[in-house]
Predict the structure of Gamma-glutamyl phosphate reductase.
Amino acid sequence: MSDSQQYIENKAQCARVAFYQLAQASSHDKNAALQRLADLILANQNAILQANQQDMQNAQAKGLDNAMLDRLQLNEKSLAAMCEGLHQIIALPDPIGEMDEFRLRPNGLRIGKMRVPLGVIGMIYESRPNVTVDAAALCLKSGNACILRGGSEAFHSNMALAKLIQQALHETGLPENAVCFVASTDRQHVGDMLQAVDLIDVIIPRGGKSLVSRISQESRVPVIKHLDGICHVYIDEFADKTKALNIAFNAKTSRYGTCNTMETLLIHTSRAAEILPQLADLYATKSVELRGCLKTRAILPHIQAASDEDWATEYLAPILSIKMVDNEDEAISHINQYGSHHTDSIVTENYTLANRFLRQVDSASVMVNVSTRFADGFEYGLGAEIGISTDKIHVRGPVGLHGLTSQKWIVLGDGQIRV
Amino acid sequence: MSDSQQYIENKAQCARVAFYQLAQASSHDKNAALQRLADLILANQNAILQANQQDMQNAQAKGLDNAMLDRLQLNEKSLAAMCEGLHQIIALPDPIGEMDEFRLRPNGLRIGKMRVPLGVIGMIYESRPNVTVDAAALCLKSGNACILRGGSEAFHSNMALAKLIQQALHETGLPENAVCFVASTDRQHVGDMLQAVDLIDVIIPRGGKSLVSRISQESRVPVIKHLDGICHVYIDEFADKTKALNIAFNAKTSRYGTCNTMETLLIHTSRAAEILPQLADLYATKSVELRGCLKTRAILPHIQAASDEDWATEYLAPILSIKMVDNEDEAISHINQYGSHHTDSIVTENYTLANRFLRQVDSASVMVNVSTRFADGFEYGLGAEIGISTDKIHVRGPVGLHGLTSQKWIVLGDGQIRV
């Protein structure tokens, strides 16, 4: 066993012990630790910002781009937002221990389910130091122990926050190893976390597509992740025009870099001549580049042709591909084939078509008359989210506290034996 | 791409198309296909039994052991049981399309969940031909397409059943590719199924431990599985003696080869002298070999010593390890450390200790005053089960129709855009 393997195994075993200790903690205990952490962050702003300054200087010296620097930088406002996030998590109901679905069996057994934590969660993430606090808080509130491995560029910021997290756990009587940190930038540790079957129960990567893709390919531990957000809005034959214009404009332009941004607009042939020119004018005010199918270009002759590759591309940029479809079936087929099963919305006033869309589109979030931009944990009322899942196994869509839990069966008897 | 990869990719793509077609099928359509299948099995008993006879002859020629032959053999009674299984699945409520947890958000959005199939399920199993019919029926009822790869020793039986399944689908207007068969005994196909990320959504292995273990190690597709059943009964300080004797005897001796059989008995020190000698007499009537810890052997001096390996062994045989513990914490720690997170039961009349056991034992099924032998899908009222999961991700314990589903988010709006 290599030193790195040994290091990860030790961390995971400490986390496992802490996980079993956490099973005895009440919601009150867990909330007290989160409250203490919020207080400590406020009281230690200077130390955190100093550590962050060190990371920023290193990052600038390494020539990291502005987007990276922006994600890395902390200030009083972002620390206040961290604390606000903690208060929101404190306010959420504790899912652990909830019992439901109890049924009485003919032999007198009462059988139901209890909501329980997953165990030890491995978080692997990039530059944003606020993930350290979010992830620690969500894992703790849901009764899980976690092992956090942040990006090397945020190392000092993360370690400053780590120190406060451990202090908050210690001062409120919870096991410090409930939140473990990989206190090294050795890349081998990531590889070893991904191989730690039976030691780590689930891996959650947060970061750019290349990180997430590499992790999901290499990992032998189950992964909760999302790779792409190729989201669609379909303007149906029976769409309300005002809603269609508003939603199609908002879904593309309110932010370009988010995974719930629309990347392809589908529009029913019968409405294209009426709606597309006005939409094109709206997009022009934001300099959005349009790329269209053959029929679209008959109406918007000045735009580029969209290739097959466009339908499968998450631009994360002011670019939009547009395709005309002859009916809802064609729209649904296109979405299921080219989309990333993230979030897709139909604009229609037709009850039956809305219901067919909801049923047949195979995505984590399916919407009627709403901008796709609403697909996130806060908007869904989950409180904070630890990520979004485009997988179908375990959890789909925004992942909040419930996504970090499982259910075990509870069987209550009175001496029953099986004949 | 190898021929085998191409073969599996073609199957998976056909299954995917069928999966999307199935989204339009009503419960009535799916039940009609299952009913037709039951009728066809009864009407074609001779053809099935002839094919099975061929498998039996090949298996005997190859020198397969009696247990294998027993699992392989079909007769009129087992075919009737298959049909009875189909009728039970027909009678189950269809989980697909269920909508719940709808909440009204402050911005007027109504957000909830819809239960949906997983997609394309790959089943890899060994000798029992009845798995072919069970798996096809459970996947179809839950709206999933499936690719079935049975054991080579059951090839002719499976192909005879496959023909009827395809006929039933065809005659009732459902896509035949909703149930695909790997009609070849090429072992490479299994390997290629396990690599078919994005083509197959989940793999469910059914068979011996070596098969399941190999599959879960190799698979890049998520796997729902259980490996070991190291189940415990803990006789607590406050156990009712009669219940303790009945449960401990039943959990070990009602069947030896099942995964929910007790393999280790834990008993509180204060009750050992009173209960263990009587239990030993009971086990002696069934020639169960006992292996004990040091303290146990002070009371039962004639039995073997249990090693550390015993605590981690699933005997699947008339052997039982026994350990005395000083308190409930020690029992829970032992179970969480050495058990397989399958099924564990406490015998106690103490309310508080029962509740602590339920909360702190980290197993798929946790029981009070019940024989562990009840841990299966039929006993839990799920109808048929497609397997048991000792994992925590996605589904724990017996896996019925619900375990083959996921939930997507439904967002109902009225033109909302995000500011």
User: Anything to note?
Assistant: Chain B is about 45% helix and 20% strand. Chain B touches chain A through 69 residues (CB under 8 Å). The longest strand of chain B covers residues 405-416. Residues 79 and 332 of chain B are 43 Å apart (CA to CA).
